[in-house]
Amino acid sequence: MSKAQYDLSAQLQAHLPSFLDALRDHQYKRAKESIPLETAGLYEWRLVANFLHMWADCDSTYHKMTYLQPEHLYNDTLRGLYLQLKTQSLVCAELLHFKRRDKAGSDSDLDKMGSAPMAKASTPTVAPSGYYDSLRFSYQSDQTVRDYRSSVGSVGSNLSEFDLSFETALTVRIIEYKAFLDQCSRYFEQRLLLVSFYLGLARERPHAHYLFDYVEKREFLLNIQHALRTLEHPLFQPLQRAATMEVLTIRAALHCETMLAEYNYLKSIIALHELKQQLSAWADVLDLVDDDDAPETIGELRVSRTSRNSDCLPATPPHGRLSIENPPHCKPNGITKLLKRGESTSNVLQQSSHSLSTSASVHLAPLDDDIVLPVYRWSKRLLASLTAKFTLYFNKWLDQIDAQMQPRGILPAPKAVPNHVGLVYMDFLDTFFSRNFLRDHNDSAQLMLVVDTSSLPHAGTGFHGQGYLCPPKPSVLKKPVVPAANRIRAANKTYFGKVSRYDEDVDGEFAPLWGVGSWPVVFSYPKADPPELFVKKHWPNLVMLLQELPSPDAKAKLKQSSPIGIHHEKKMGASYVIARVDPSVYLALVFERRKQSPTDKVLLDAMTLLLHSLQHITVYR
């Protein structure tokens, strides 16, 4: 062990705890100010200080999500910087690496080792569970090694090399800081993967009809979650807990989206509830950060927790998103605290001088429960988008429940639930149809959500247009003996998508639908169910067009620049506007053309808005 290693560990002990506390509180400017760049006579410290400053810059940009802005979306700057951090953390760990000696040393022996070549850094290994808990070492107060010469001299004269390496506080401190820097490389590797995950959602897709494989993405996040568990160093506990909460929340959101794509009512509503619980747990972690730093804000935090229990987001400003720009003659100020409650948005959302973003303005978005953390707001917007999608997919079922909930109380009507940008689907459809279709179009124009039950799990045997069936009585009835020839459900005799799922076979299970009946309508506007004559006239053409849509696989090579197809049938005088929302769910607008029919551009704009909202593209970008 050299004198430089001792001095370096002493500097880490003096400055690293306050740096990590500032990172935990998302106070990145304060984190940089806690690390001095220069220390007299210690060249190695400048390398470590630059590493810590870059860490604060990268985490600031990561949590503010400025790298997802259009001007930075394809730069890959943040990914490259996290890759540099991963390498630099190992270089800094190498500075604290030393060899064991065969016998007890002296003060002069320790000084001589300063010029000896360092051993090549080995690949960091995962410490056994509970290893760091067993270490009797304090990172905050080590009063035993303040004087280098006296402490090292006494140790060298009284203890063996084994004792010097593993039992003295001085050596344990160096070993622990090296282990911390080794684990930093794994931490930055997971950060790099999360940045790639967010960029993959926000960037352009391989082709117009491509759909994300959310099951694969959930497995990707699960691997990150397992890797974060290996960060057992005590100094990593706050950062590891915050990162794990983030990953768990996103995985819960993707699970909900997967259940919605399978049109599974029960699992979808359970997944929505789990996502809301996970967001609440994440918010509690953020509240704990404020409780530690500002005990006098407990009253404000209680108000925040009560407001968090509501599903409704704050109203969007009437003039859209605001922009707060710094005066050109003023130097931009750093964000004092992203989690600060009770501050005005003009103070909280000022441009940070240490941010990697060069933008001169920061967009103001509606605050979520007074927690000003863009990563958290991103997840909260995704919850709002999933909730609005759920109310549209299961509108028929929810309407029946809604009719029985009088007086309503504080719950909003399903038709009035907005998505993350304040868009209420039913209000939008009311406006669109009133502007583009005359009253006599009510029987000849329908916007529908159509489900391909044959592509659902188990061939759609568990599909029900209104969610699920519940037995009228809890008692179990004895099954009558019925000949096999009579075990035919009436639903298998349905024609043109008019399906009744209330008929069960003798086994109490649903038989799969067949023919055009396997393409039922789960949502229709302006009529709750498309007219029978309308279905018989247009359903064969519509099903054929839906089946001819390109594959959503990433390997498909397509020339289409739009995921929305517009087809005009001259003989029938009808138009079909179709798009795939999920692998088994389609959006279709069918109308018979009149003199005042909407133009293709109007149709394309309206369908694009609906499609991007249902696929959460406006959240990802």
Q: Could you explain how this protein is built, in words?
A:
With 621 residues, the chain is an alpha+beta fold. It has three domains: 1-203, no CATH class; 208-353 and 362-416, Hyaluronidase domain-like; 417-471 and 486-620, Beta-Lactamase, CATH 3.30.450.240. 46% of the residues lie in helices and 7% in strands. It has 19 helices and seven strands. Strands 4-3-7-6-5 form a five-stranded antiparallel sheet, sandwiched between helices. Strands 1-2 form a two-stranded antiparallel ribbon. α4 runs antiparallel to α8, α10 (237-261) packs antiparallel against α11 and α11 (265-293) packs antiparallel against α12. Residues 100-167, 290-371 and 471-509 have low confidence and may be disordered. It holds the Pfam family C12orf66_like. One of its GO terms (biological process) is cellular response to amino acid starvation.
Which secondary structure elements does this structure contain, and how are they paired or packed?
Layout: H1 3-24, H2 28-33, H3 43-64, H4 77-95, H5 107-112, H6 148-158, H7 161-166, H8 169-202, H9 214-229, H10 237-261, H11 265-293, H12 298-308, E1 322-325, H13 345-348, E2 361-364, H14 374-393, H15 395-403, H16 425-436, E3 445-451, E4 521-525, H17 532-547, E5 565-569, E6 574-582, E7 585-592, H18 600-614, H19 617-620
Antiparallel strand pairs: 1-2, 3-4, 3-7, 5-6, 6-7
Helix pairs in contact: 1-3, 1-8, 3-4, 4-8, 8-9, 9-10, 10-11, 10-14, 11-12, 11-14
Pfam families: C12orf66_like
InterPro entries: C12orf66-like_central_sf, KICS_2
